[in-house]
Amino acid sequence: MLKHFFYSVYSFVRITPSRDEAPQHIANIILSILFTFDTIFFIDIINQNFNLNISFHDSTLGNIVIYIFYLVIIHFLINDKNKFQVIINHFEGKSDKLKLFSHILFLLWVLFTIFIGRLA
């Protein structure tokens, strides 16, 4: 699933003016930000439902730690040793239906993140 998300963001970054500025790292940053928002929103929803006292809104340090965690994890899963080239080559050789599926899956994930953010 992460490969689908990465390919979708990477292909979007390649059509923007920042395509010459290491698009794999920009895609990594975008994915890390979205995963960070999802994590914070899920923690808020769990706090509301189970009356826990875990709060990330009081200090930004918790948010920064979560963001850096995802940034490092995604870097080692995708960007380290040019693994992203294998992912890109895999998707470039596939049909347009798989590429469209990846883009739709990513858009659904973004809409899900926005929906969860409104609930939190």
Helices and strands, with pairings:
Layout: H1 2-14, H2 23-50, H3 61-79, H4 83-92, H5 96-119
Helix pairs in contact: 1-2, 1-5, 2-3, 2-5
Structure description:
This protein is mainly alpha-helical and 120 residues long. The chain has one domain (2-119). Helices cover 78% and strands 0% of the residues. The protein is built from five helices and no strands. Helix 1 (2-14) packs across helix 2 (23-50), helix 1 packs across helix 5 and helix 2 (23-50) crosses helix 5 (96-119). The mean pLDDT is 88.
Number of strands: 0
Sheet-strand content, in percent, reads: under 5%
Average of pLDDT: 88
The largest sheet is:
none
Which segments are poorly predicted (pLDDT under 50) over 5 or more consecutive residues? none
> Compute the gyration radius: what is it?
16 Å
User: What gap, in angstroms, lies between the N and C termini?
Assistant: 24 Å
Fraction in helix:
over 70%
- C-alpha geometry: globular
Number of domains: 1
Number of helices: 5
Question: Pairing-aware structural class of the strands and helices?
Answer: mainly alpha
Succession of helices and strands: HHHHH
